[in-house]
Amino acid sequence: MIFELLFLGLVTGFVSGFFGVGGGMILVPMLLLSGLVMKEAISISVVQMVFSSIYGSFLNSKKQSGILIDGIAIGGGGFIGGLCSGFVVAAFSNLTLQYIFILIMLASILKLFFTPAEHDKKEKNQSILLLVLIGAISGAIAMSVGAGGSIIITPILVGFMNYNLKRATTLGLFFVIFSSTAGFISLSFNGHMLYSQGIMVGLASLVGVYLGIKIKHMINIVSYKKYILILYTLTFSIMIYKTI
């Protein structure tokens, strides 16, 4: 199982860096296919996201500027929402959590599909309070199903606030730092963590994150949107297969 976890960490790290996600959206389905139950997969995923989001955001900060204020506002809300995740996980069954994950993925796919990757209009100026609220709701929902929150944040930023897709995914990964840290605290407090497996996957993911971010900045934005939709659709299909 050790080599399998290291491999999953490497793959998840690449996905995290390239797509600006925490990695849970791909790691959770793969762990389910490996024989783990939903709550075990969530606990490993949360630890991995702490590793990949911090390292990935550090690398992104070298290539993109001007994300700090929005990132802290959304991330701060994500931290608040993530603190609630342990209670949500404890309240619902594995099957219910899987259905919630599926609904989130479906909504994200539809919103991204009908939204252009790059807007002609300028980004909308949003209040800090609104960004915090969006972050809090996204963090509470996403961390409860082992996802970092960027699968919710990215469609909102691109579809409703006119963010460039690559900028939105960069903010999404920054958001995951806050939401995954809060999720880690909450899940630990409620006794749902698998520490050793999570750390193993998290360390392996750092190599993948580096490669993913490097390749991300070499691809044009239209192609980048297609790759994101492929990833979302693949993850959605795996979850459908494992749930129904």
Distance between the termini: 26 Å
The tally of beta strands, per DSSP, is 0
What is the rounded Rg? Answer: 16 Å
Sheet-strand content, in percent, reads under 5%
Element-level helix/strand string:
HHHHHHHHHHH
Task: Specify the helix fraction band.
Answer: over 70%
Tally of DSSP helical segments: 11
Give the structural class.
mainly alpha
* Total of domains: 1
Any idea what the shape is? globular
Q: How many strands, which pairing sense, and closed or not: the largest β-sheet?
A: none
What are the low-pLDDT stretches, counting only 5+ consecutive residues below 50? none
Average pLDDT across residues? 86
Organism: Arcobacter nitrofigilis (strain ATCC 33309 / DSM 7299 / CCUG 15893 / LMG 7604 / NCTC 12251 / CI) (Campylobacter nitrofigilis)
Subcellular location: Cell membrane; Membrane
Keywords: Cell membrane, Membrane, Transmembrane, Transmembrane helix
Transmembrane segments: 6-34, 41-59, 71-92, 99-116, 128-158, 170-189, 195-212, 224-241
Structure description:
It is built from 11 helices and no strands. With 244 residues, it is an all-alpha fold. α1 crosses α3 and α2 runs parallel beside α11. It has one domain. The chain is globular and about 45 Å long. It starts with a helix and ends with a helix. The chain is 79% helix and 0% strand.
Task: Sum up the structure in keywords.
244 residues, mainly alpha, 11 helices, 79% helix, globular
Please describe the topology of this protein:
Layout lengths: L1 H18 L4 H10 L4 H24 L6 H15 L2 H7 L2 H20 L14 H16 L6 H12 L3 H25 L5 H22 L4 H23 L1
